[in-house]
Sequence to fold (229 residues):
Amino acid sequence: MQKIWFRILTLSLFIFSSASAFAVTGFSEINNALFDKAHLKNLTQPGTLNYHYQKESFVDGPREDTISMTVTNFRNTGRKDTSFEFFTNEYNRPYEDRNNQQGNGVFVLFLEFDIRELDRLTGGEWAYFQRKIRWALAKGATKKEVDIDYNGTTVKGIEYKIQPFINDPKNERYSLYASKYYIFTMSEEIPGEVYKLRTIVPDGDTWQEGDEVLVEEVLTFTGFEPLKK
Fold:
């Protein structure tokens, strides 16, 4: 059973991360910022990017965990090999290594995890949610400049925000999550460029910082550890 589940995860990851199935090259600024940009170019030595995951949910309750991405085999082309420790203990998800990469795949795996959770919680179809997120990214996002506190200094970043399901005429089938927000905070000053990935299920159609939420999940970059020689 474990081997079968691993194969399902591997197949879903391949489908989800395929450019033809998910990203639309050159279609919008957020799409290009996520899928086309060389996020790993600011890494100058092999090491591990560490992220902290925190969840608050009236459905499942609170949870904290970690995700790490190890980057090795620096090529002259700028591409690198990556491997993941995606959650720990019983929550660990066995993703295959992603080699010859220029982008930071942590956001792809986070979105894959997210649509699988939507599938579990709504009894829907993960591919349907995938398409809605893909189309929202292709259409574009609201954008604002933000300040990020990193290592005791303030660095500049960009925050992108989408609501993939809000205008779906079929969203009554998953009404609790119809207003869900996806927020991506990126910065060239952060190793790997992905600073924060955040999803919000508001208690209503709209949300702004400080409002009550039903579900919030946040993945935040916590630091880079060089590999020991």
Summary: Residues 106-122 form the longest helix (17 residues).
